[in-house]
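note to self — DONT lose this again. spent like an hour looking for the file last time. sequence + predicted structure for the chain T wanted, 310 res
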Amino acid sequence: MFKIKPDPFFVVLFASLPLQAQEKDAVSSATTARIPGEIAEGKPDTPMQRPEPLAFKVKNTITRQMQVEESPEMAGLPPIKGKIKVTVQLVADPGLVDPAPPLPAMPITDPAVLARLAEYRAKYRLTKIAFVSASVYEHKRTLISCHPNGEPTQVITAWSNLDFNHFSGFSRFETKGREGVMQTYDLMMGISDMPGPVRVKRLVKAGQIDKAPAPPNLPDLAVAGPAFVVVEGDASDPEAMNLLQGMHDLYRNEGPRMKAAYQARMKAQAERRAYLLANPPKPEDVTIQFWERATPSAAGIQNLKEGPKP
């Protein structure tokens, strides 16, 4: 590896290969980077089929009116207010079957436990957790902080020429590491869209933030493809660099699909917001049903036998 310093505060990292070899290696690694599944596009989920309600025998009923205020479905919408009917019913014991008792605890040295742990490690040995924090500026630059495999002390910060909003809608991706082995990442990411330069200047003037961000001169995405600049952390750490490179390889290969899914989610969100504004939801009535058991549960009998615990 060698380093080029276009600015004393930023370090751009490149592979120590000729430019043609760099491009060839980037393309070959990107072709193996993929999202093994669907990307959310904002389509509503298929509603779960509700089970048939039990035929309770009602003994007593109390009904009251109550004024409630609930949080809106989306931020920025008015709260859901209204008067609801709360019904409380005492019903006869329906005779539900007791839940199965919890399994007994097994020592870590038990052969069955050791066998299951070995099976789990073999199955998920190439799966790592990637904690990523992304601050997106004007959908053109993103300041990202990565914790490879969830290590709190192992953090690397970089500027990217990608809009990391496009990395939402999925939670797992695969990419080829520097050793040529496919690596699966479970992505745990927080994304925030930062204010534009005009608002940033106002925030600085008002003393609400220290200073405006100063991203380096990254190449344009449409011209040079995905690129990043490391600004803090150990750039020689293979775990961190594999994650950073892997995310950019992923976008090189899956970027159009990721961008299209993000745009579809934004469109669906705007349509849903417009619908909620035109059709304000009303809080739903609530029915609460309770009963006294005709016979004590097995757990209750066991507690009676054991007596009060100290």
